[in-house]
Amino acid sequence: MATTADVRHELASLADPRRAEGSxxxxxxxxxxxxxxxxxxxxxxxxxxxxxxxxxxxxxxxETAELLSSSVHEERLTSLFILVRKFTKGDEExxxxxxxxxLANTGRINNWDLVDSSAPYIVGPWLIDKDRGVLDRLAGSSxxxxxxxxxxxxxxxxxxxxxxxxxxxxxxxxxxPHDLVHKAVGWMxxxxxxxxxxxxxxxxxxxxxxxxxxxxxxxxxxxEPQRRREYLTGVVQMTDxxxxxxx
Length: 247
Hints:
Number of helices: 15
Structural class: mainly alpha
Distance between the termini: 64 Å
Largest sheet: none
Radius of gyration: 20 Å
């Protein structure tokens, strides 16, 4: 039976100082960076996933929560991989416990990779058939990670063909001060557009002129080159397919 100590020992055995240096730069664990104060030991994501796959059944939720409170980035990410596996395989009671555990620890889910590895696979799926008001609270939080969790959670809704909350939160986050939120909003708009291009372009028609540039670029990344140029230059001719026109 694996324990929290076993997971930490295995991750430590896989640590690579050179990889840790690169991860620290990539995730901005540097003075003034959004990940300042975090610590990487240099374990690759595939290796972390393999550790999680071997250990997830053995660790209790309390032990997994202990990993989530770690000062080591890879230990927190591995704990989230474990929680996703437990959530996917768990019954309704355990899934609810995991959802509440994640929301109680958003201050530890404090980088984009941690958010993106958990919100679309735990927060969103739990809320599919439930009151989603918690997403409004998260979107209004002063913590950038809460706001990214809110929009990334809607990926689960998008996959189910429901774009309403993606557009609702995207509109609310249009003037967010952080580029990590801009990127996440643009990404989710793009995912909605991959499934319903007209719905995305209807949203863009109302907002593309005021959207942060990086948000717009992410949102239109899969558009045809000419269409991207139209949005980026601010001269957009809408088509009958979308049902409206604008310049």
